[in-house]
Amino acid sequence: DEKKTPYELIGQRHGIEKLVTSFYALVSKDPVLSPLFPEDLTETAYKQTLFLTQFLGGPPLYTEEFGHPMLRARHMPFPITDVHAERWLSCMERAMTGQKLESHLQEFLLSRLKMTAYHMVNTERSEN
Ligand code: HEM
């Protein structure tokens, strides 16, 4: 049905949790990304599940629990370069591919996440 939200197409809460779990498994093994994250990613994965739910057109679970996302502000404590954004997106793409999402859905999700990821960049890449 063409009126379904991306949230429904991905498989609602269950589909998002699966994606988030495989995404953070990849993040934790990424030598560039992992130093920015806490060792225990349970809370991070929980927040991302709530955020992606509302980002993809599901109920506003993140806002209900944590307030306005203000994602750029919440990422300011972490020095994020374009390299981090690329690697974040690469982990997300591999997580989606592992889940065998329908290719149109995957392209749509990645194009939206790409805008958000580059919006988080707050630090210039050092040349050395
Ligand atoms: C939190 C890194 C992009 C959504 C975080 C945290 C880090 C981080 C280090 C804190 C983890 C914690 O303390 O629990 C990055 C990096 C990115 C990136 C390096 C590369 C561009 C994104 C994108 C989204 C996103 C594109 C949205 C689709 C979130 C959310 C949180 C979070 C919802 C939890 C915020 C909170 O309530 O504290 N991110 N992030 N991030 N990130 Fe990202």
Word description of this protein:
This is Hemoglobin. There is one protein chain. This protein has 128 residues and is an all-alpha fold. The protein has a single domain (6-119), classed as Orthogonal Bundle (Globin-like). It is 63% helix and 0% strand. The chain has helices at residues 6-9, 12-29, 42-55, 61-66, 71-75, 82-98, 103-119. The model has no long low-confidence stretch (mean pLDDT 96). The structure holds protoporphyrin IX containing FE. The site of protoporphyrin IX containing FE (HEM) has 22 residues, from helix 3, helix 5, helix 6 and helix 7.
Q: Cα-atom Rg, whole angstroms?
A: 15 Å
The largest pleated sheet is described as: none
* CATH homology-level superfamily: Globins
Low-confidence stretches: none
H/E element string? HHHHHHH
CATH class descriptor = Mainly Alpha
Keywords:
single chain; 128 residues; Globin-like; 63% helix; binds protoporphyrin IX containing FE; iron; Globin_bac-like_CS
In brief, what are we looking at here?
This protein is mainly alpha-helical and 128 residues long.
Task: Please give the structural blueprint.
Blueprint: H1 6-9, H2 12-29, H3 42-55, H4 61-66, H5 71-75, H6 82-98, H7 103-119
Helix pairs in contact: 2-3, 2-6, 6-7
